[in-house]
Amino acid sequence: MIEKVAMIAVIGRPNVGKSTLTNRLTGDKVAIVTPKPQTTRNRIFGVFAYERTQMILLDTPGFHKARTRLGEYMVGIVKESVADVDAVALIAEPVDSIGTQEELLIQHIERIGVPAVLLINKIDTLKTKQMLPIIDRYSKRFAFDAIIPISAKSGDGMAQLLEVFDSFAVEGPQLFPDGMTTDQPEKQIIAEIIREKLLLCMEREIPHGTAVEITKFSERVPGAAAAGGDAGNDVGNDVGDVGDVGDVGDVGIDGFAEGFEDGFAGANGGDVGSGGVIGGFLNGNGGPEWGDGDVGSDIVGIIDVDATIYCEKASHKGMIIGKNGAMLKKIGQMAREDIEAFMGAKVFLQTWVKVKANWRDSQSSIRNFGYTSCT
Ligand SMILES: Nc1nc2c(ncn2[C@@H]2O[C@H](COP(=O)(O)OP(=O)(O)OP(=O)(O)O)[C@@H](O)[C@H]2O)c(=O)[nH]1
Ligand SMILES: [Mg+2]
């Protein structure tokens, strides 16, 4: 029986493990995780019950010196989140110095006057005695309510952390229904899965300049006549349509279909220029991380997903597509496996790549891609 709620903003520089911690405590993969900084772009709720408390973690983008309007948006989300919660969990790398980003965040916490705990993450990477100078340095800088060494990866320190988080809970009814682990809509989670694969597969600035838009998300009725053939026709038509858009627009679009043989066979009707349409079978057993549908739905049929990947330069587009479409195929396969595991259903995924120059500095593009303020 939930009687209390604790809203805790998880903040810190990029790559410290905010999303890893949010996923671990939530027990679901609500946020994507990669070894690259600036993975998270939006505020993501991770919801779970701890004893009689509903815990609502606000996973936030990494705090950094913004160089684009998207960066400014991300930093704004962090500041907004801090102002909105019962407590803040500042996560830091286990290093014996307070970095610029940590210092700026501590100053922000001081300004807002919100209770704060410091989580020193990744302690699996160092020896216990190396912890003491780190704790000492931070405790001299700011009166944190607690300083807890943790490993979001291994789970060390979670029991203590949960007790401390619970101490910030306030009386009140639960804000999310039982079993709901995030506020992210399915379409958004699917777009994020594709972005995760882009971050994992692409190097340097390329993945940071990508955004993913889901343009179709629909369920085929199970057992409906000629489902595969329909899919094929759909694919062929869609591909043709997209080709037209490419002709009219500034740059062409190259597409790739990933799914079932039936759909693939039909997909050959499309005409999309160099990228073409490539299809294939996959085992569909899914990645281990995307859970069993707690966050997803109970769809039992086949789900058609069309996704457009936007990047910033024609050269980036070429690299995302890869030789003979090999890279886009790999990204599509990896994403489809995870989307299937998340949705608990078969997925027919088509991906397209389009260039939108400097979109990260365009307010309207940023908004169109779903990066809109959460308040
Ligand atoms: N060794 C170790 N690695 C960790 C731990 N926690 C997270 N990581 C790794 O650190 C990297 C970044 O993790 P994320 O959870 O994406 O970090 P983040 O703070 O959300 O990053 P942004 O969204 O970019 O701000 C990933 O490669 C994680 O596997 C930990 O406790 N130990
Ligand atoms: Mg993150």
Describe the structure.
With 375 residues, this protein is an alpha/beta fold. It has helices at 18-26, 69-82, 100-112, 131-141, 158-166, 186-201, 227-248, 261-267, 314-321, 326-343, 363-368; strands at residues 4-11, 44-50, 53-59, 87-92, 116-120, 146-149, 170-171, 211-220, 254-258, 302-311, 346-355. The protein contains 11 helices and 11 strands. The strands form 2 sheets. Strands 1, 2, 3, 4, 5, 6 and 7 form a 7-stranded mixed beta sheet that branches. Helix 6 (186-201) runs antiparallel to helix 10 (326-343) and helix 7 (227-248) crosses helix 8. The model is unreliable at 225-252 and 261-288 (pLDDT under 50). The chain binds guanosine-5'-triphosphate and magnesium ion (MG). Magnesium ion (MG) is lined by residues 18-19, 31, 39-40.
